[in-house]
Design brief:
7 strands, hpI Integrase, Chain A, 369 residues, 9% strand, mainly alpha, DNA polymerase, domain 1, 2 domains, 3-stranded antiparallel β-sheet, two-stranded antiparallel ribbon
Length: 369
């Protein structure tokens, strides 16, 4: 069983599917992934769902169970199976208890979420398994749990929640120090690469949003860059729907101008980030090329980073500099301020000390120790 890239007829884009050992598509997965493509989920999202469902159907094959007859107890076994190393999943290899889990709790929860979406889609298609990963919790008082907005309107009604979920340790997003960011920029041997990471550092864009930028998106006079949701030749896509405008500095725009003058030259392309040395010249830079660049910069600097660290760094810098979180949420393109709060609603000890210092907390001498 394996995941296969496919071209979507009539949509002009790519998608993914899961094939069995004989090379035939698995019909239930194919219908779900095709639905995701039709509603314009990004190819990367569809690919992730494909891999998650492939794991589940491989588990069902080991157990000899069809997907329409899965029980909640079997799903518990699936979670345990996911935590095993691939070599031990067949049951023919025993692992010592000291061996760490193969997947983290967050990875398992992501796979369960994908499974829930798959079964809900199947339920809408007439298969009576849509509530398999969902339990109905009664409404009422006394739980002490967080209550959503407008809870008072439907507080007596039950609500849906996943029946199986692993507790995840809360981890702060990894950010780059100024020294690390400078080292990465200085390790770039071409202005295109330096501009790419400077753009990520200043704006907090996702790498896919940056790779999908066109020259028409950059308004130099207004010092603004528009991030637009659209299909791109390199498969890059903005995760956020619609359009948002991000203000940028004159320094960043000067770097863009230098890049155009010294490296881009007479290339005929709408895209900002293109192949400068590899054929075909002028073609939009792809994810693979961007991540190859990241690998080279890791080796040169000794810093194990990913492009998304620049997004976390930009958001954290904005919040530490006192920018209201609703503005940060808009600049990042989050669908809700709740998303921003869930990721960045944290303070380190150093952040807390800075706020207390500014408030004069430690200068208060009304009470002597």
């Amino acid at each position: 069983m394996y995941v296969q890239r496919v071209l979507v007829a009539g949509l002009g884009g790519e998608s993914w599917t899961v094939l069995d050992d004989e090379g035939a598509p698995i019909a239930a997965i194919e219908r779900f992934l095709a639905y995701l493509s039709v509603i314009e989920r990004s190819p990367n999202t569809v690919k992730a769902y494909a891999h998650d469902l492939k794991d589940f159907f491989e588990f069902l094959m080991v157990k000899g169970v069809v997907w329409e007859r899965v029980s909640l107890e079997l799903l518990g076994q699936y979670v345990s199976w996911l935590r095993l190393a691939p070599a031990a999943r067949s049951g023919r290899v025993a692992l010592l208890p000291s061996v760490p889990a193969h997947l983290t709790a967050s990875s398992v929860n992501r796979k369960l979420a994908a499974l829930g979406a798959f079964y809900r889609h199947a339920a809408r298609g007439g298969v009576d398994v849509g509530d398999l990963l969902v339990t109905w919790r009664p409404g009422g008082r006394g739980t002490g749990a967080w209550k959503p907005f407008l809870h008072h309107v439907s507080k007596g009604a039950p609500h849906q929640a996943r029946a199986i979920v692993l507790k995840e340790p809360r981890r702060l997003p990894r950010v780059l120090t100024a020294v690390e960011a400078q080292a990465i920029l200085d390790a770039c041997r071409f202005l295109r690469d330096r501009f790419l990471f400077a753009l990520l550092y200043e704006t907090g864009m996702r790498i896919g949003e940056a790779l999908g930028l066109r020259h028409e998106d950059i308004a130099a006079a207004e010092r603004e860059i528009a991030v637009r949701h659209r299909d791109n030749a390199n498969g890059a896509r903005s995760k956020s729907a619609g359009e948002r405008v991000v203000p940028v500095s004159a320094q960043l725009l000067r770097l863009y101008a230098d890049y155009l003058h010294q490296e881009y030259g007479q290339l005929d392309s709408d895209y900002v980030f293109v192949n400068l040395r590899a054929a075909p010249l002028g073609r939009a830079l792809e994810y693979r090329a961007a991540y190859d660049l990241v690998q080279r910069l890791r080796r040169r600097t000794g810093i194990e980073f990913s492009p998304h660290w620049f997004r976390h760094t930009a958001a954290t810098r904005l919040l530490r500099d006192g920018v209201p979180i609703e503005i940060v949420s808009t600049l990042l393109g989050h669908s809700s301020i709740t998303t921003t709060l869930s990721i960045y609603g944290h303070l380190t000890a150093a952040d807390a000390r800075a706020v207390l210092d500014n408030a004069g907390w430690f200068a208060d001498t009304q009470v002597a120790w």
